[in-house]
Amino acid sequence: MECTVKWLDGMSFIAETGTGHLVAMDGAPDAGGRNLAPRPMELLLAGAGGCTAFDVMLILKRGRHDVRGCSVRLEAERAESDPKVFTRIRFIYTITGRKLKRETVERAVHLSAEKYCSASIMLGKTAEMIHEVELVEAD
Questions:
Q1: Quick check: helix, strand or coil at residue 55?
Q2: 17, 58, 117, 129: most buried, per Cβ within 10 A?
Q3: What is the pLDDT of residues 44-56, one digit of tens each?
Q4: How far apart are CA 89 and CA 78, in angstroms?
Q5: Is 121:80 a contact under the CB 8 Å cutoff?
Q6: Dihedral, CA atoms, 92, 95, 100, 104, nearest 10 degrees?
Q7: Burial class (CB in 10 A: 0-12, 13-18, 19+), 60
Q8: Helix, strand, or coil here: 134?
Q9: What is the CATH number of the domain that holds 98?
Q10: Does residue 49 sit in the same domain as residue 96?
Q11: Three-state DSSP class for residue 4
């Protein structure tokens, strides 16, 4: 896996991933940025959310569960001094489907958190990880 990050101007950067996708990043105005794009730490958090959502959906779909929607909201706290690593991340999964069993969804979340999601497992080296599940019955 590879990625190249290039400075544009001010505190704006463009990352090009090994698969050829572009991601913009920018800093806050008080740090010389123009607030045109996410901060790098926001992208790191989004990556963890995407990684675990992918895992949970894959596990549930492989189990032939009737999943109609999946979202993961992440709430993170960071250290007050440098390096300002994540110290606590709360993952709130909202899974919509028909006749989903709480135990089944919680097992998928657990497997992602403990075995499959490289991003959140890596972040768990510095942060307390909290996982919550909300189930919504689809019409």
A1: helix
A2: 117
A3: 999 999 999 999 9
A4: 9
A5: no
A6: -40
A7: buried
A8: strand
A9: 3.30.300.20
A10: yes
A11: strand
